[in-house]
Fold:
Amino acid sequence: MLGPKMMDVGRHPNITLWMYSEVVGLGGEAGDFTARVRRRATFVDWDKCTGCAACGDVCPVKMWNEFESGLSRRAAIYRPFPQAVPNKFVIDRQGTPPCQAACPLHVNAQGYTALISAGKYREALALVRERNPFPGITGRVCHHPCEAACERATIDEAIAIDFLKRFVADRESDLEWDLEIAEEREERVAIVGSGPAGLVAAYDLRRRGYGVTVFEALPVLGGMLAVGIPSYRLPRDLLEGEIDVLKRLGVEFRLNTRIGREVTLEELVAEGYGAIFLGLGAHVSRKLGIDGEDLEGVWGAVEFLRSVNLGEKVRVGKRAAVIGGGNAAIDAARTLLRLGCEDVSIVYRRSRVEMPAMEREIVEAEHEGVKIEYLTLPTKVIGSGGKVVAMECVRMELGEPDESGRRRPIPIEGSEFRMEIDMVVPAISQSPDLEGVGEGVDLEITRWGSIAADPVTLATSVSGVFAGGDAVTGPRTYIEAMAQGRKAAISIDRYLRGADMAVGRDGEGPFETDVKPDTRGVGQAPRAVMPTLELGERAGDFREVDLGFDEEQAVSEAKRCLNCAGCSECKACVAACEPDAIRHGMEDAFVDLDVGAIVVATGYDLYEWEGLAAYGYGTSPDIVTALEFERILAASGPTGGEVRRPSDGRIPKEVVFVNCVGSRDPESGVAYCSRVCCMYTAKEAMLYKHRVHDGQAYVFYIDIRSNGKGYEEFVQRGMEEEGILFLRGKVSKIFQEDGKIMVWGVDTLTGRNVEVAADMAVLATAMVPNKGVKELAKLLRIGTDEYGFLKEAHLKLRPVETLTAGIFIAGAAQSPKDITDTVSQASGAAMKVVDLLSGDELDHEPTVASVDPEVCRACGYCEAACAYGAVEVDLVEKVAKVNEMLCEGCGGCSVACPSGAISHTNFSSRQYMEMIEVATEDY
Ligand code: FAD
Structure:
């Protein structure tokens, strides 16, 4: 209905539309305002967008459609409705989704999950690779902080984000990728250590154009990925295949080269390396510190796993105890079983809840037969003939939390016991092996035996030498080590360019985000289960245990994503947009507009109130608001204009319309009449009857307020010709029973209780002030009434003016009104503007404040009291000054002035006093 008018406005040569924009500041006065406008980022270049909708068609993110009152879904890139003016698209992005914010590398998890849900696997893999060069490895070993932050867990279980990443990495491993290198640079960088930290640093620096050489002490690449994590979790061909990308980039590798033995840091500098990164990891198992640790049969977990992983011959015992609760402990235990150890126990001093190993790993270990002795501490390894024969232990109980936040284990007196074993594998922690590394240079080491590095830049005490990963943080995780590698690469790049290394680095690392998903209508859906190798096939076998999702599992798992942030920048739209209009990097812009007058027409909101629940709203999709029903009736609406129930698409045979839901109800805070409900309810009931001839419409009302020409007749026609049943009375309860919407009420004309069993109920909810209108009113220096609607200067004499000259109001921002009233008020406001701006001079209130400078003490009370920003204290002259163009003569400043320095021109104190006397006189 408004379409043609809106088109006219959009095409008018003298009208500029500033869509998706808001006024955030106002200066000046009538005839000469400056409005500061925030133009929100649309992420689409409107000069290029043709409104073709190709982007919306490919967008995998579906969100509730506000224009359809949440009755249908729209894409995250959308145009509000087909006839929208201008016919342009915008992207709905709410911020960074929790999964991405929690990832140390900020991999776009929501984005690739959305792409998988749409079957775009190659695009998904390309998106992962933008921030993570090792998707297959990550999909297998990452401890997935993204999943810990996943909002889906508030409904049922977190999305299996990591397994989805693995799915695309495995399925599309042949996908070529853009390995472009920025302009080649002369400087060379030495990376020491080929673990995840070193590999990512090498990858990033090479892509920035530096010559990179990786020095690795061991004969294999990958650090703990190769010599710690067993191959049944991370197949070696996959590991080598993903590391291969660095070779293709031109990174040079020198294996079997230990810094501090084969070559020193000083020699690296002499060889011409401009910067060095130390990613040495933590490869020495910490001792238990108990008697008997030197006996034959005691193996540090990382030393044991390293030997096994390097293919060395390792003799295992028959009964082994692994001490610790982390991933290394679980890996050692499961490896022992595979090597033929008959009885493997994990001994852990805390309880299952505190165990740091990944939950899935613990479950699999137990499944394979590993026993776990919780709340148990080894106190002595007992030997015979120099070999382990038993271990003495004590049971523990948990006390108060320690500095790690976990409850401190305390030995229980008299609970000592003995375990008969022939092998002990301590897996309590590891430290870096720094022997010889700092030789000849002043490399600072912490008291925990790690390398000291600046937390922001990772610079060490030696200029040009940086360090990161486990060697700095102590044993942590794969993804944190990668993030440290990336951090170091940024620092090294800046160091070599002579730039400030510390500036602007706040966004690195995980952060909190307040983005929350819209969970309306989301039902339970269980998380997909990873298929695994049969138990019987695992013994003596290092084949991968997790077999990966099939396509069906992956897609349905991806569809569980709540798309917390709306648009996830998956970039499907970028590929689809022929005019190249998508601008994901767009930011909000601010413009100052010089205007002579302002018309505020910000409309209204519908009542969202917990009291709506008493009307059953939210308990059944078939209890809708009148606005929702309006969309159901609309030919361009979600049902194409056919009246169908949202729950099952059936044509409703009885519909109950309820007026005054929220309004005319002082208890709900809306004592006023919303004015338009009686008539639009009558209209909707009539339209319903036109579509469903054999349907019955009921209307509950308090009294019918048909205040408009021909309105009363319209209601009469509805009753007499269409058979709409108008019931005078209040509804007491609406609820769902046996597939029907039950409406209980009282007919106040007959005094009888009424019960209607209907297929749908339509609630005419109150009109309330627009959200944010109070702030806007403050900013524009105009007033609001007791309910929060914008206040006119005088209801009858100046209905479109405000008390601030040059600012006018129109429409439901002032009070509830229908389209006809709105249009006439808007015309009135427009005429006022014409009147204001067409004259040679501006009219102004004659009564304005004036300051007596002799008396004024510049205390500032007047400035604080002025609602119009008209009074300002001149700090140099130490006197308050009044801008007469802004002053509305309200008297607020003179009341606030403690020294009586402010009076009003054309109005003496004597006049005020006389007025007060008259007003307070007793009659
Ligand atoms: P590392 O991966 O340890 O790599 C350091 C490299 O530096 C090694 O290759 C080493 O040989 C080399 N090096 C050392 N000194 C020198 C020198 N002087 N000269 C040249 N080279 C040198 N994390 C997870 O997120 N998920 C898991 O499932 C997981 N499982 C684990 C299982 C085990 C058994 C262990 C021990 C750790 C596990 N971790 C896991 C932790 C994770 O592997 C580490 O946090 C991560 O590998 C640390 O990366 P880094 O690059 O700092 O060091």
Q: What stands out?
A: The radius of gyration is 37 Å. The chain has 27 helices and 38 strands. Residues 478-497 form the longest helix (20 residues).
